[in-house]
What we know:
By secondary structure, the chain is an alpha/beta fold. The chain is built from 12 helices and 10 strands. An 8-stranded mixed sheet has the order 1-2-4-3-5-6-9-10, sandwiched between helices. Strands 7-8 form a two-stranded antiparallel sheet. The chain is globular. Keywords: Hydrolase.
Amino acid sequence: MRQPEYLQVGAVRTRHIIQGEGPPVVLLHGIGRSLDDWTATLPALSNGYRVHALDMIGFGLTDKPDVEYSLAGLARFVRHYLQAVGEPRPVILIGNSLGGAVAQQFAVMYPDHSRRLVLVNSAGFGRDVTLALRLLAVPGVGERLMAPSPRASARAVESLFHDPRFATPERRAHAHLLATQPNRATSFLRVARVLGGWRGVHPAWRDTLTRTLAGQRLPTLIVWGAQDRILSARHLQHARAVYPHAQTHLFAQTGHLPQIERAEAFNALTLRFLGDAT
Length: 278
């Protein structure tokens, strides 16, 4: 895989990778995460696709300006990114967790620029979410929880996987690097509090988003890890109900990042789904 580079998207210094040639694919990470969650995906897809992986505004090693963060704002940033790299074609969007919600929002806002969706343990399909994210909505408590420490970063990484062997020292160190970035807590908390509260993920934006997108009947693949501790696999049942046209798959013995924990199977499943479009 290529090394990440930096690109100006407007005034935002943006970390990204572009690899491969073919129809364009955009990889979108989860809250507090980075493009590094796609290191096993990008090489597999780049054999037949032009793959873009980016740290979204406010996350990873991309700038974290003092702006009003929202789901629409994140989707708008993805659109601005594609304009900055000169990609005019409709894109395939692959999003994990928050990135799945951003992918859906992008498809609603820019239907002419959206070709297919792959939603990986995606936000937007249920209310229940891990206690740690609900606590972030509590004023004062959230700010204290965002204080960076190696121990907190290690616990966060461990929560993402069913198999603890994937919570490697390298992943823990990278998570701590992200946690120590300037203004990281502000952007993280603003996004988290727009999307959810103490009781869980807010229903209003979820219902509006899925109802609107369902009418577009965009070809969609939805996958989940059966042992996800962040967003329960129960959400997949609701996803099947709101997007009855979608293909779905549940990975056994898998946590919140099946693209890492079940990389080979995830890549094969995704490539088969994308191949149906050609």
